[in-house]
Amino acid sequence: MTAKIAYDDVEVGAELPARTFPVTRATLVQYAGASGDFNPIHWNEKFAVEVGLPDVIAHGMFTMAEAIRVVTDWAGDPGAVVEYGVRFTKPVVVPNDDKGATIEVSGKVAAKLDDNTVRVDLTAMSAGQKVLGMSRAVVRLA
Amino acid sequence: MALDQSFVGRSYPPTDPYEVGREKIREFAEAVGDTNPAYTDPEAAKALGYSDVIAPPTFVFAITFKAAGQVVQDPQLGLDYSRVVHGDQKFAYTRPVRAGDRLTVTSTIEAIKSMAGNDIVDIRGEVHDEAGEHVVTAVTKLVARAAEEG
């Protein structure tokens, strides 16, 4: 494993480059196919509303996959991620229009740990709401 | 009704091996819009020290969640899947998943809690490769929401 960021060069509090990820209905259909999660709450508006949701929502695992890109792009080696966990606090609501929704992700180094690893705390927002809680990754640096 | 605590610690038989394909990884990476070449270009993956393309960190969920179906659908446990939402997800990796891996999953019920009428089940999926080496542990928290009154 060869992360492009050196452990010795990183300080607690350092911010990772923030990213904004778009998500449309087409994105969700594609993710459903790739992941095998065909739950209709992710593509069928009528079904979503019937079970009490405001509209079709993104797969929590899609949001989780987007959020970690802030870490993997920064570290340079996706295989350097040692641990990754999130809590799904609010759904990402994806309206059926041209714009869809966006997921805004930022991250910062929260702690330097043993064995050249650091803990990165992530924040993921959509439509002004925090959509992931306790979103943390441990990544091994060079 | 609260779930039976005696199910805590119960393990289910390992799944049949899932063979990870390069094109399945590519399909997943494209679906999440991630153009990192380690997912699609074997040479780029080799430059990072891997024998073949690796999978994005959350890729393995599709495999562990399918395995967790043994727990979810266990009629003795009696989880009401129509009320289940995904509460938390965690992964702890020994190494990344890579193309060519033949992965088996052993699912264990790690915890059962009842809070405000909700049933909360933590399922741990231990993922091993063909050589029996640990690859990743996935812990999935499922919340079966309380049935509405009346």
Describe the model.
The complex is a heterodimer of chains A (about 140) and B (about 150). Chain A has one domain: Thiol Ester Dehydrase, Chain A (Roll). Helices cover about 25% and strands about 35% of the residues of chain A. Chain A contains four helices and six strands. In chain A, strands 1, 2, 3, 4, 5 and 6 form a six-stranded antiparallel β-sheet that branches. In chain A, strand 3 (about 100-110) and strand 4 form a beta hairpin. Chain A is elongated and about 50 Å long. Chain A starts with 14 loop residues before the first strand and ends with a strand. The mean pLDDT of chain A is about 95. Chain B has about 150 residues and is of the alpha+beta class. Chain B has one domain (about 5-20, about 55-145): Thiol Ester Dehydrase, Chain A (Roll), CATH 3.10.129. Chain B has three helices and five strands, in the order βαααββββ. The chains are: A alpha+beta (about 140), B alpha+beta (about 150). Chains A and B meet through helix 1, helix 3, helix 4 and strand 2 of A and helix 1, helix 3 and strand 2 of B.
